[in-house]
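Tokens as discussed.
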């Protein structure tokens, strides 16, 4: 290499000679795949199911602050040896504007949309 310029084959938007010739590398012929959903499994120890639920909710809420694309409504908790017994961590009720409630599953009172000052809806306090 005589200088720091990119090699000629990296210039795929223009022709090989920089003119109107065909590009050296063609763009992909098929459209990109749509985004797919994936699940991450985090293992930890806890004294009982209630304590494990508290830890799992804390992990999920903390990760959602760092990565807003995390789907809180899809978060679940299960024993390490029985993934088929997973239970939801968050309510997930659908609101009037198609948002989902991000309160803990089984909560009393209004449902709440994500984010600070999120919309609240429902029948209010249940006593």
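Sequence:
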């Amino acid at each position: 290499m005589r200088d720091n310029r990119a090699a000629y084959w990296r210039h795929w938007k223009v022709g090989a000679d920089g003119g109107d010739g065909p590009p050296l590398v063609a763009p992909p012929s098929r459209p990109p795949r749509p985004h797919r959903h994936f699940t991450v499994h985090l293992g930890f120890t806890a004294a009982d199911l209630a304590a494990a639920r508290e830890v799992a909710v804390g992990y999920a809420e903390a990760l959602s602050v760092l990565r807003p694309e995390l789907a809180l409504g899809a978060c679940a908790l299960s024993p390490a040896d029985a993934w088929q017994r997973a239970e939801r961590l968050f309510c997930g009720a659908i609101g009037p504007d198609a948002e989902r409630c991000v309160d803990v599953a089984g909560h009393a009172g209004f449902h709440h949309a994500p984010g600070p000052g999120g919309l609240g809806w429902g029948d209010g306090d249940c006593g």
